[in-house]
Amino acid sequence: MNRVLIIVGEATETVDTLYPYYRLQEDGFEPIVAGPEKQRYHMVLHEVPPDWDGKVTREFEGYTIQADIAFRDVKPQEYLGIFFSGGRAPEYLRYDEDLIRITLHFFEATKPIACVCHGVEIPAKAGCVKGRRMATVPKCRFDLEVCGGIFVNEPCVVDGN
After folding, report:
1. Using one digit for the tens of pLDDT, what is the confidence trace for 22-72?
2. Measured between alpha carbons, how far is 74 from 97 in angstroms, rounded to an integer?
3. pTM assigned to the model
4. Which residue of the set 42, 46, 105, 118 is catalytic?
5. CB atoms inside a 10 Å sphere around CB 153
6. CA distance 5 to 23
């Protein structure tokens, strides 16, 4: 089993998604893109312009990505790990009951889990972050902490699986 789910939706961040998508392949894994439906999704690009004092993100239209499978059709036991991409997509994806079911499986089975940027909002909504040290963008700190997670302001944090 070498398949890894990559969770996307409309307004998924391009770099947050494509970089792990290709890195997984380089390391011999098969990325499987999952979304609310098996369709093409529009991604966005984010930057923090230096003249905006580092507090506001500017958004641009990004590439598109095809979902290989809809959340409702995912059998999480068939996957090695899961990656929650960033962008604005997690803000609405976190309410998808099938995605919550999938998320709970990976945490309960202690399979590898990764998230970047706003991706933390999905495991937070699923009730899976309590007591975990996690990195995210500072604007998602509240979402993490209100759900019991511990915000760590570092580029990368590993806590358990």
Report:
1. 999 999 999 999 999 999 999 999 888 888 876 778 888 989 999 999 999
2. 12
3. 0.94
4. 118
5. 10
6. 13
